[in-house]
Amino acid sequence: MTIDDDRFLDSLKKNNLRITEARKAVYSVLADSDKSISVQGVFAKIESTSGIKTDRVSVYRNLNLFSKLGLVHRLQDGKYSICAHKHDADHGHDHLHIMAICNRCDSTFEVDSHDKQICQAVNKMKSFVNSFGSFSNITFQGTCNDCR
């Protein structure tokens, strides 16, 4: 498996984490998919497509680590999706992420550029749900154009 995502490698190096074959495999499964994937799904894909030895617990731990590093998102359904944003040093992964998921095919799309109208709508939603505390993701579910 090859990783051509410098963000992944740089993030691990910056945090003094080892770049293992298992970590590269977990990240590659998500990076190569246009759908969000469960821990079991990532594990099954690694098991069926590579000779890398890993287990579900290691996959889960790596996904949680990647989430903390801002490389992936953990969605409300417990599945994971690669983060489309290129984070800068000042803002990291702390800004709001807007995700769209197709109910039929599970395709996952992250809105990676926020125009003025989207930001205004999100700010209105933030004030509406202020009583919930903080949140970092907004997820829209519906049917994508391909499935209509």
Key traits:
2 domains, Arc Repressor Mutant, subunit A, 3-stranded mixed beta sheet, two-stranded antiparallel sheet, 148 residues, Dna Ligase, domain 1, alpha+beta, globular, 39% helix
Describe the structure.
- With 148 residues, the protein is an alpha+beta fold.
- It has two domains: 6-82, Winged helix-like DNA-binding domain superfamily/Winged helix DNA-binding domain (Arc Repressor Mutant, subunit A), CATH 1.10.10.10; 97-147, Ferric-uptake regulator, C-terminal dimerisarion domain (Dna Ligase, domain 1, 2-Layer Sandwich), CATH 3.30.1490.
- Helix content is 39%, strand content 15%.
- It contains five helices and five strands.
- The strands form two sheets. The chain has a three-stranded mixed sheet, with no helix packed on it.
- It is globular.
- It starts with 5 loop residues before the first helix and ends in a 6-residue tail after the last strand.
- Residues 88-93 have low confidence and may be disordered.
Low-confidence stretches are 88-93
For the largest beta sheet, what order do the strands appear in spatially?
4-3-5
Q: Kindly report how far apart the N and C termini lie.
A: 34 Å
CATH architecture of the largest domain: Orthogonal Bundle
Structural class: alpha+beta
The helix/strand order is: HHHHEEEEHE
CATH class category label of the largest domain:
Mainly Alpha
Biggest pleated sheet: 3 strands, mixed
Estimated share of beta-strand residues: 5-15%
Quickly count the helices: 5
Q: Count the domains.
A: 2
Average pLDDT works out at 82
How many β-strand runs? 5
Overall morphology: globular
